[in-house]
Specification:
By secondary structure, this protein is α+β, with helices and mostly antiparallel strands. 17% of the residues lie in helices and 22% in strands. Strands 1, 4, 5, 8, 9, 10, 12 and 13 form an eight-stranded mixed β-sheet that branches. It is globular. The structure holds the ligand Nc1nc2c(c(=O)[nH]1)N[C@H]1C(S)=C(S)[C@@H](COP(=O)(O)O)O[C@H]1N2 and molybdenum atom (MO). The ligand Nc1nc2c(c(=O)[nH]1)N[C@H]1C(S)=C(S)[C@@H](COP(=O)(O)O)O[C@H]1N2 is lined by residues 67-71, 125, 160, 179, 208-209, 221-222, 224-227. Molybdenum atom binds at residues 68, 125-127, 221-222.
Length: 304
Amino acid sequence: MAQRPDFSLPYSMVTPRSVYLNRRRWLASLLAAPAAAAAAQRLDNVRKTGYGKSEALTPYEAVTTYNNFYEFGASKEDPARNARNFRTRPWTVRVDGEALKPRTFDLDEVLKLAPLEERIYRFRCVEGWSMVIPWIGFPLAEILKQVEPKSTARFVAFETFFDQRQMPQSAWSGIPFPYVEGLRMDEAMHPLAILSVGLYGEVLPNQNGAPLRLVVPWKYGFKSIKSIVRIRLVKNQPPTTWNLANPREYGFYSNVNPDVDHPRWSQKKERRIGEFFKRDTLLFNGYGNEVAALYAGMDLRRDY
Ligand SMILES: Nc1nc2c(c(=O)[nH]1)N[C@H]1C(S)=C(S)[C@@H](COP(=O)(O)O)O[C@H]1N2
Ligand SMILES: [Mo]
C-alpha cells in the first residue's frame, strides 16, 4: 500500500448495530460449523493460579477465530485460515543486547525455564473489543534473567518471525514487517507480563501467536506481540510497529486508559466479545493496583 493505509476498514465492526448483527451471524456460523481444525495438543503440568478466577471466559472458538495477526491478513477471520500451515518447529528465540550472557534458546528450553501457569487475563484491543483468555505461560522476567541484563538495559525490544513465503497475505496488510514492539525494563520485569505458550489448556494455536507470544494485560492488545524470534535488551526506547505506522494514533506506552481517547475512537467503553451491552473500560484494564506504581509521576496523556 503506497498511500497511508485505511485503518478504519478492519475496525468497521465497531458500529453498534452492525456489531450486533455480525456477531449473531458469526456465533450462528460457529454453532453450525464447529472447529474443523486439527486437534490441538494438551499442555501438561500447568499450575493453576488465582488470576482472573471470577471472570467469565470468552469462548475458545471466539478466541481462536477472531484475531489480529496482520502477517496472515488484516481481517479478523484471516489468521485462523491462513496460519494453519505456519511452521512453528524448529523454533529459536535469540535474547541479546545489553546482557552479560546473550543466548539463543531452543523452544524446548524455553518451555523448561519456569513452571507453566494458567493466567486468566482480560485482554483489551484498541479497536474497542475485549476478551477474557485463560493463557498458559510464565513471567517474561524469567527469560530475561537468564541472560543477566546489564544496568544499561533500560528497554526491551521484541521482534516477530517474518517470512513472506509463509505469510503472503502480509503484502496487503498495510503495516511494515517484521512486527516489532517494546517495553520499558521495569514493565518487562513486572510479574503480570508473561510469555504465553498456550491457552485453554492447549498449545498456542498458530493464529494466536504460536509458539511464543507476549501478553501484557494492562496495555492495548497490539503490545502483545506474537510469534517472537528475538528479544533485545537496549539502552533507548525501541521503535514499535503501530507507532511507526501512525505515531499520532499509537504511542509507545499504550496503557489501557478510558480518559485518553484514540483520535478516531473513544476508549471509554468496550464490548466484551459475546456480550451485547458495552462495559466501562478500566484504567490499566483493571490492573491498576498492580501496575499504577510503574507510572507514578508520568503524564499519561502525553505518554500515551
Ligand atoms: N506479530 C503480530 N503481533 C500482534 C499483531 C499482529 O498483527 N502481528 N496484532 C496485535 C493486536 S492489534 C492484537 S489485538 C493482538 C490479538 O491477539 P489475539 O489474536 O490472540 O487475540 O495481537 C497483537 N499482536
Ligand atoms: Mo488490537
